[in-house]
């Protein structure tokens, strides 16, 4: 083994490193949090979540422990926009102009549709996000991409949040959002439509990032044999995203915790 006799005896006399119960607890929590995220949390998010639980740990040490425990994050890949409007439909002005940071909740919502593949065929997911906290406040998934898909997502959000009239809803120019049915639905609820420019993905960048996280941090990491399995997996991710996933835009808090912090500070509901 190319080891000298003196080095061998020195190794024998060297005291073995003892792993303390506190360190073992840290390792277990780090592995658990990483597994719950489906191997998607990096050192920044993991260190924040560990500090929330009372551990005194830096991002550098978290990165070191991740290497030691073989916790490797899988990188995302790019994807493209998938819906186009009918030229006969009316297009709303862009009221956001890439301003994704409203000063209060239920002032600006954003939505979009994405495709999700299962062994039984495609599923289509429409979501509604409150841009203030990045919380998913409404969503609907179906095997058909119709006007009802986006309509049910919006109705779910309205029923949950009960926003005041005048709320801005931002989307792309997909045919579902420019349809007469959806315009009438928004008028009935008192929401104001806003739409991004053609071919400009940055006009709805926050929602696009959510879909990227959903797919590449969650959906693509397990088999999706049936549509029912996909529906349940999407529900599980949205629950995890709203309650546990940390956001830099939320001062390192999850959407739900960020909204709760607003209530505690302002005393509002």
> What is the chains' assembly state?
single chain
Main sheet specs: 5 strands, mixed
Q: Helical content, roughly?
A: 40-55%
Strand content: 5-15%
Order of H and E elements: HHHHEEEHEHHEHHH
Order of strands across the widest beta sheet? 3-2-1-4-5
Shape: elongated
Which radius of gyration do the C-alpha atoms yield? 23 Å
Q: Helix segment count? A: 10
Q: What class do helices, strands and sheet pairing give?
A: alpha/beta
Q: Would you report the number of β strands? A: 5
Mean pLDDT, nearest integer?
A: 86
Can you tell me the residue ranges where pLDDT is under 50 for at least 5 consecutive residues?
Answer: 77-81
Distance between the termini: 69 Å
Outline the structure in words.
With 269 residues, the chain is an alpha/beta fold. Helices cover 43% and strands 14% of the residues. The protein is built from 10 helices and 5 strands, in the order ααααβββαβααβααα. It has helices at residues 5-13, 21-36, 43-52, 59-68, 147-161, 175-178, 180-189, 205-217, 227-243, 255-266, and strands at 108-118, 121-130, 135-142, 168-171, 192-195. It has a 5-stranded mixed beta sheet with strand order 3-2-1-4-5, with helices on both faces. A hairpin with a 2-residue loop joins β1 and β2. α3 (43-52) packs across α4 and α5 packs parallel to α7 (180-189). Residues 77-81 have low confidence and may be disordered.
